[in-house]
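Archive entry. Fields below.
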Amino acid sequence: MLEVRHLSKRFRDIPALSDISLTVERGDVTAVIGPSGSGKTTLLRCMNFLETADSGELTFKGKTVDLHRVSRKDMAAIRRNTGFVFQSFNLFANKTALQNVTEGLTIVRHLNAETAKEIALHTLDRVGMRDRADHYPSQLSGGQQQRVAIARAMAANPDIIYFDEPTSSLDPELIGEVLSVMRDLASSGMTMLVVTHEMRFARDVSNHVIFMDAGRILEENDSSTFFASPRETRAQAFLNSLHNS
Amino acid sequence: MTERGMKACGLQPMTERLWGILIDSFPKILLPGLKMTLPLTVLAFSLAMCIAVVTALIQFARVRVLTPLARLYIWVIRGTPLLVQLFVVFYGLPSLGVVLDAFPAAVMVFAVNEGAYCAETLRGALESIPRGQMEAGYCVGMSYGQVMRRIVLPQALKAAFPALSNSLIAMVKNTSLAANITVMEMFMATQRIVARTYEPLALYLEVALIYLMFSTLLTWLQRWGERRLASKGGGAHA
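PREDICTED_STRUCTURE:
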């Protein structure tokens, strides 16, 4: 369903991503893991045009675009069919939880207000936030904000949702509620590409793992194979360092 | 203060004549206030806001060519006195063949002047809105214009509201400078009455009081506006 080929990106003189290629099939839950600064977040951001790649191609549902030079129309079409969940939630502060979800439905998809509200309430229900629909982001905890942000990404029924370290800025006791929402989403068949430091989530929920280091994909494997016996020594060392901490 | 002390300062004790002058002059000062000062302020400030929004957005989006022009505009306007700007336009431009009536000239100068200050206020407010919210907007498929109009600008205007109210109140008082280019506003009206009655202290205090009334009214309006904005959103501090 989605394929990235030869994606490269440098920040000034520092190569952030070198010749990244990957494939995601419908229904895949892919965990992108690796040490800090390995380029995981930049990869996701390039795939949704939040950063401009220096080179590379993206094939999405049969249509191929140049990641360095994408037309506004293609960019909008791809973004309309992908969801993005940020590390820092990034809810619209001037909108309620409900409005955060309806915004894309009414403004981008031109649904009428009633239909949008119905869909949004249903989606908020799925993340357990329906009773907070009228709260503003500043009135919600981090975990609640992230669940609303997930609802916002889900509402438009995208083909894939990108998660950029969705639990990294949460207090430890709030991580569980967000992971459980993501677990439900995965079991409902949603295609997900998840940058994460939550190894248990990666092991239990994802079926596919991409291990990155220094801007390259070092290993790409089935989740069970990867966690049982990683091929790469860097991956072994990375997993060991987590076990020992 | 003793009666002698008052005389030494050039003060006269309040007399019936003075009360008469004050009461008599009150409507004569207030009327130009309502007919000139207020329209001048409202018109000039509305225009200033338009100028400010455009200038701030140009800088925020770093539009090529226009951004340095916006900076130049702000630099020149903020770096020169308002009174001098009024004189340049009203007394200076006629020698280039540009002759403006006093009122439109004043509206123009006040708008252009205030626009520069408010543009900086707004630019700061725009830049205080976390970029992540813009990215989130793009990711649900919104265009730059939609993100600005629906997400960033409403929050920026709210954040800038107290500072912009400040500018509005400052402008009400600054309109007294328009007396210097023959606009018949409150201060000029007062000067004329002073010329007739020789009661400068009482009359200038009276006009000061009327300016204070106007400012107080605006301060209340500001409070009301802030309360309304606060009830309409969880705050820009999220």
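CURATOR_NOTE: The longest helix of chain B spans residues 16-60.
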